[in-house]
């Protein structure tokens, strides 16, 4: 599993997931969820009391961020240079916001000056950006967005679906107001939950919001009453997924969060070195690369689908394809969790070099 | 686990859930989801092509029904005699509908004549009811709603959260347009998925709907493009939960769907007989009882919390409490899945009789 996610999952996670299910009001469940919440605070880099896992996948986290923090008729600026930023814009549109897309070609990122320029002109209520864009492998520096946004009093939503658990998000230090993620990428668990955190400042905004969240299922105020005292019934949480996430977070804590981030950074540096020594090029520019999701340019004339097919059928290795404007132009190679080390890279490059050579020979003949 | 759900889960389900996760575009995942869809058609009693499992709990199914089939400003009539019908009304309100609650005290149900009277007067676009009301143990006859609703051309939403898998829903025969459920009650799986089915007539309505579904995550048109050809990426489905649900449905098919329904009906009849032979009374009236969720009146003067505590601490048996207007007045006892048989009842009554006698002795002394 060297795709963009789900990624490799350790046996201990599957074992934890198989523990007997308990009821939604069982004190044992709240022990589990409290432990998940503490672990998520650590990987998010936050002391936000409102930090929990929503009962849906990463996209439900995106929907929750928009439904709770974007008023109908209000202005939402989305900085977009890839697929998932556009999805935020689409959700904003559906929730009745006046959406302004500040756009760059896929693979771009934004400087603080560029952001300030847009936000001073647009004066939005809410600003959204993607921290780690899975479609391009680009990482956006959070403070380039949050500083200018807070100058005009806007709330900032950060999509951390691909970054959380593999690279620092540092929600508090970066002054991100709302962040969400998924369970199956940097956290190395099965998909099904969406880690979510809200700053006290954004929570105050939410408490003062006159409108009810249009989506009852994702209403953060109701969820706070369920996961905190008085534990008022909201929905029956997917207990087994919570067991898995707790175990995944325990594994991360055993390694040490910072050590895990460093391991991913080292594996990424080594990945880039090996790619370049093969004569290939990275797609995302240096300094803006997401360490756990590497995008590699497909050389001119090479059939990337043949390489991916070979990798899968001959070596049992799955990698991601480029899509949208990057279809056929990049490979998307996830190096994360248990595979982000020398042994994982040896496994990958042993196969990748063969498949690329085979495809290169075909390309040369043609 | 004799609560209203989650209920007892067989080991084979946990084993299936621990199979390695695959990617959201893996052909193997679509094999699994096709198999889930076929199994769900069987338990729903429908040939609806649009039958699938949503990536959220039962409440997300309710939200999807309302968000997709209730236009803002349109009229929604909810027949309510319990907690979950009120939740549908609340979701309708949040989605901007003109909600009319046709209300009876908790524990009631509606006759065809009563429904016809309300619907002829109100002429709603959409009508909603709860097939099996978990808060009261009452089952509402579907055709008492669907017949008058179709006379005025309204769409009918049926909440089958507690009934599906344990008792017939017969979506086609009952002419229900939209039905949703959960995975952890009648289907005996962990919570996390919401079985959902839509009639071709309602699907036509949806295709012609000018408004986009306000909730992107639960947009049924997008989900159809993902689960059917062209399998266009929507979100990363919680694969492990799909493995579990497929195994749960396989277990149901091995037993035979109709035989499973009969087993639950027999266990229910025997449950009622034993309750009455203890001198206790059922709460839901005969002929309107949900077979897998039994509500039993707490005798005058008995401390129901003490009985429940005793059951849990002395015998490891969990049952549900009454809540809302029924707090302290009923026990809610789930008899479903692997426990809906003579052995399950022996286990339950062996403990229940002791705890009730102990509480009765205390009540008499006091």
Number of strand segments of chain A:
12
Rg of chain A is 21 Å
Shape of chain A: globular
Largest sheet geometry of chain A: 7 strands, mixed
Distance between the termini of chain A: 31 Å
CATH topology of the largest domain in chain A: Aspartate Aminotransferase, domain 2
**How big a fraction of the residues of chain A is strand?**
5-15%
What's the domain count of chain A?
2
Examine the secondary-structure arrangement and name the CATH architecture of the largest domain in chain A: 3-Layer(aba) Sandwich
Interface with most residues = A-B, 51 and 51 residues
Give an overview in words.
Two copies of one chain form a homodimer. Chain A is an alpha/beta fold and 366 residues long. Chain A has two domains: 11-254, Type I PLP-dependent aspartate aminotransferase-like (Major domain) (Aspartate Aminotransferase, domain 2); 256-365, Aspartate Aminotransferase, domain 1. Helices cover 45% and strands 14% of the residues of chain A. The first copy, chain A, contains 13 helices and twelve strands. Chain A has helices at residues 11-17, 27-44, 58-69, 83-94, 112-122, 143-151, 171-174, 200-208, 220-227, 239-255, 257-277, 304-315, 342-365; strands spanning 51-54, 75-80, 98-103, 126-130, 132-133, 138-139, 155-159, 178-180, 194-198, 293-297, 320-321, 330-334. In chain A, helix 1 packs antiparallel against helix 10, helix 2 crosses helix 10 and helix 5 (112-122) packs parallel to helix 6 (143-151). The radius of gyration of chain A is 21 Å and the shape is globular. The interface between A and B is large, with 51 and 51 residues.
């Amino acid at each position: 599993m060297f795709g963009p996610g789900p990624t490799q999952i350790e046996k201990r996670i599957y074992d934890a997931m198989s523990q007997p299910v308990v009821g939604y009001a069982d004190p044992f469940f709240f022990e589990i969820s409290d432990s998940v919440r503490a672990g998520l605070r650590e990987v998010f880099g936050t002391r936000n009391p409102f930090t929990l896992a929503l009962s849906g996948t990463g996209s439900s986290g995106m929907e929750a961020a928009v439904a709770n923090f974007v008023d109908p008729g209000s202005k939402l600026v989305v900085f977009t240079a890839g697929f998932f930023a556009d999805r935020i814009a689409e959700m904003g549109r559906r929730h009745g916001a006046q959406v302004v897309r500040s756009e760059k070609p896929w693979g771009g990122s934004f400087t603080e000056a560029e952001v300030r320029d847009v936000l001073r002109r647009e004066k939005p209520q809410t600003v959204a950006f993607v921290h780690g864009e899975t479609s391009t492998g680009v990482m956006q520096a959070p403070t380039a967005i949050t500083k200018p946004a807070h100058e005009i009093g806007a709330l900032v939503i950060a999509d951390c679906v691909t970054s959380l658990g593999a690279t620092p998000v540092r929600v508090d230090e970066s002054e991100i107001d709302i962040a969400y993620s998924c369970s199956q990428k940097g956290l190395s668990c099965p998909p099904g939950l969406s880690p979510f955190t809200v700053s006290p400042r954004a929570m105050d905004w939410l408490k003062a919001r006159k409108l009810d969240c249009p989506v009852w299922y994702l209403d953060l105020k109701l969820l706070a009453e369920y996961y905190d005292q008085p534990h008022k019934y909201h929905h029956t949480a997917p207990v087994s997924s919570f067991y898995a996430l707790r175990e995944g977070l325990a594994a991360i804590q055993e390694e040490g969060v910072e050590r895990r981030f460093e391991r991913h950074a080292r594996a990424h540096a080594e990945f880039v070195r090996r790619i370049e020594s093969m004569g290939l090029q990275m797609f995302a520019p240096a300094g803006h690369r997401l360490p756990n999701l590497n995008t590699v340019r497909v050389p001119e004339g090479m059939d990337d689908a043949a390489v991916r097919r070979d990798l899968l059928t001959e070596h049992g290795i799955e990698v991601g394809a480029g899509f949208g404007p990057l279809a056929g132009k990049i490979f998307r190679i996830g190096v994360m969790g248990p595979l982000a080390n020398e042994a994982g890279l040896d496994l990958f490059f042993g196969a990748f070099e063969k498949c690329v050579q085979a495809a290169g020979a075909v390309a040369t003949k043609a």
